[in-house]
Amino acid sequence: MISQENLTTTETFPITARNQVKRISKRGIYDRQTIYQILDEGLICQLGFVVDGQPFVIPTAYGRMGDRIYVHGSPASRMLRTLKQGVQVCLTVTLLDGLVVARSAFHHSMNYRSVVVFGMASLVDDASEKVEALKAFTEHIIPGRWSDTRQPTRQEIAGTLVLSLPLTEASAKVRTGSPHDDEADYSLPFWAGELPLRLIAAEPVSDPRLADGIELPTYIQKYSRGIRE
Amino acid sequence: MISQENLTTTETFPITARNQVKRISKRGIYDRQTIYQILDEGLICQLGFVVDGQPFVIPTAYGRMGDRIYVHGSPASRMLRTLKQGVQVCLTVTLLDGLVVARSAFHHSMNYRSVVVFGMASLVDDASEKVEALKAFTEHIIPGRWSDTRQPTRQEIAGTLVLSLPLTEASAKVRTGSPHDDEADYSLPFWAGELPLRLIAAEPVSDPRLADGIELPTYIQKYSRGIRE
Known about the structure:
homodimer, 12 strands
């Protein structure tokens, strides 16, 4: 049975020793909605875990369903084999929004939205929760795709390891806007401002073996990442 | 004195227990040139380290100079204070190049180039190496900017912690091209192919307090990230 319960109904995450934003704490955000928007816009997370005292950070795709993040992969994956044992993980998602160009080298910065999640991942055993997670996963990356693709077979589901990480301890860090220069520097003859960066979809490339008569779906043609309304 | 020596002159990184690409090992690359191209194209790295058994992953900007990666920040930063003690770190840079849209949900994938670096960071004490590192840092993010900005003062240099991570143990993982579907699925009526993703610069936004008569520099106007020639 798929657990539909929310792990917590609080709208902000409690601040702990781990998730507290230390540097420039005014950029710290603990609001669940903001954090979920960042998670929903990102495509790749970075999963940090420890093996014999050694940190590993592995980029991987993910999906969110309610108050859980799902990652998946092959049962042969070192990362997933480690994580399913119930070890502490640190998951980050970073969206880079722009370069902040200050008059002084010292005050150059970046505009970004990042999320850090702490917790322990666990194996999703239940076949229907697994399928729901894979659906959330696919729809997270390409909204509209799940119903327009061959569904996973029983074998494929069995051959996929899915891990679930509860969203109970998380925080976001956000910087927006113009540079903050030293007052004396504002009159200097250097350009300053923000150079916004965007992740955009370029022209889709059809598979060379595409079957005849298949049109480009709208959800591919109009793919864009930005914030969902 | 600035150390100009190369830490190693080998053109490929030795494969170790840590940097070996385990999953889909044919995607593993140990060639220094490819790894440096990925590092030079990226803007943000993810720094993983361990504090009391707990993994932390922190996104941060970086620069490369020769066979070293530099990160910097405030002396008050928890991350930098931890790292300067000489702990093991895992640094990753991930470039997302596209979504791989397969006929089956199971074979969806992403095209990406990622680098993982293992090692121990050390504090850059020498003031001139620090300045060289900050220059590399700035030029890494905005080529052309260093000579068109107010240089750091002695105080700013003293108030910046710079750490250096030797590039001695690294690997890359790269996926390109079309989806790989099961043979039986190629005739299915679903669109398949690649949706390329690009990080582009949008219209620059001048600082509201920009001094009169300052033109937009060419290196901002023509900013693009792709692979440097």
